[in-house]
Amino acid sequence: MPLATVHLLRHGEVHNPDKVLYGRLPEFHLSDLGRTMAQRAAEHFTARRDAGAKIVLLAASPLDRAQETAAPTAAALGLEIVTEPRIIEATNHFEGLSRIGSQLKRPRHWPYLVNPLRPSWGESYSAQVERMMEAVRTQRDAALEIGGPGAEAVLVGHQLPIWVTRRAAEGKPLWHDPRRRECTLTSVTSLVFEGNRLVDVRYEEPSADLLAGAANIPGA
């Protein structure tokens, strides 16, 4: 059975001085630091290619921050960016709001907080995993058609959908504490397949040394 790898790359830091939970809103672009992170991700995948990896496909969520994160990798590897709508950010009742902690004290939001295991304030974790894995399988198969056995694809997306997809891949419950997600800015979560069987999950942080100065809002 042919081996294939799909790398789930989270976007870089976003310019967001008002600390808005921006969700699927347009016009939230990478900050200067975010662009540095995107370049770091490009260097990571370039080094991987130079070491012999067959990275043949690059896809990104339609949101600005994902497309901008993908751009340096596209330039470095000579790949076109395929827009993949199934890896978009999750829907969220609190989208567009800031100071989420204080928002939780308002009674009008309480009906959305009744089931944190689903979660009741947005798209269910299971629905996110379903659409993410559909995209992963589609782009994995496309990469195999292009590059043959050992082909690799990079999908640029968002923290929560990537994180719950990883938890599903590792056989863990999808509910979790958002503060404990291991999916930092421009981190790479890699799913390794043998045929249709998922055989390994790997995690790397190309921008680890840049994270201390970065803004990072859970769910963004």
UniProtKB/TrEMBL annotation:
One of its GO terms (cellular component) is cytoplasm. One of its GO terms (molecular function) is phosphatase activity. SMART domains: PGAM. Pfam families: His_Phos_1. This is Fructose 2,6-bisphosphatase.
